[in-house]
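User: quick one - fold this with pyridoxal-5'-phosphate bound?
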Amino acid sequence: MSKKKKLAIHGGSPVRRTPLPPMYPGATFIDEAEQNSVKKVLESKSLFRYYGPKFLNITGEFERALSSYLGTKYVLGVNSGTSALHCALTGVGVGAEDEVIIPAYAWVSCPCAVIAAKARPVLANIDKSLTLDPKEIENKVSERTKAVMAVHIRGVGCDMDPIMKIARKYELKVVEDVAQAAGGTYHGKKLGSIGDVGTFSFQLNKIISAGEGGAVATDDPVIYERAVMLHDAGAPYRGRITSRDFIPGVNYRMNEVIAAIMIEQLKKIDKIILAMKKNKKKIKEEISDIEGIEFRHLPDPEGDTSVCLVFYLPTAEKAREFQRALHAENIYVSSGGYPPVIYDPEVFDGHVFVHWKHIFKNLDKIMSKYSQTLDILGRAVHLDISPLFTESDIESIIEGIHKVADALL
Ligand SMILES: Cc1ncc(COP(=O)(O)O)c(C=O)c1O
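Assistant: Sure. Structure tokens for the protein plus pyridoxal-5'-phosphate:
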């Protein structure tokens, strides 16, 4: 390969002159199918999910399609992943005085949703999969713990077998946050169908997207009914609430335009994931001979949606140097203002708990308990894997990673 070529960061010429394709998987697959579907809803003039002058009930259709894709009995469409989390937590019975264990690497919505459900988020370390370290549940569980939030992050599912086992031992509910891994699986089961309830986001960066949107999936009729109530002002007039407890709701309803887009996006999800898997496999194979890198641990490699490739270097300093050098070679994928690194203390990123000081007032005091998380995040080099990569994009990525590794490792 390109032994000791001068790095672009040191004044050499970059491996690529042009940027890589962006990382908005679902959105970049929007075509006539979504356009026609939205047009149909607009022509019906019935944009509300429950009725209208020529009501099509596309939201109901989308909910049925997603529930059949996931293999869960119930799906409720909502307006965001954050509201889906609030509905799910309320659905499993989380409320005042309860604690919910969440990973220290997630999205800022995760602790916020716990607080919206009137409970207290408790941080737990991640492991080298970048997801919740199952061992941490036993370290964090208390008499007040009601639930664990298993956040399937950057395309990869958590290690659900040990998580479910420990959760059942302590009678905890399990909420799966599938916002970043829709379509992923764990030992053959769709993410979102393993715990008590699963939540999805259809915001712009997600594997399938309508700009905004979300969903709640469960097999449990009580969780479903509570979610319906919370999402629709208590839903007293829908005539289908059978459980006795009343949930004073807000308004998190999905509308028919979002559903019209999502029903078409869902048809494309496997194709999008397949494209990312192929791209990632090729890159990973071709860089696996590099000494000194350790790939991210995948609890179930088959189930990885392959939205990104992550490997660890021996020190955080090396990882940052490596990532900056790759950036200068134009080997990075833009995804709307997010830094190309997993963790850089200098750069704000709402996925990392150190930036949740507004939520955890005592963060400085408890920071040292999460050195495992910061060590893992700090040593991670990260590259988004767009489904739009061409053969030549992939070749340049492989060349760029080798070039930087030759110079820096
Ligand atoms: C892990 C995770 N959970 C929850 C959310 C919240 O979703 P939304 O932005 O649709 O509210 C997001 C993304 O935005 C996310 O990445």
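One thing worth noting: The mean pLDDT is 94.
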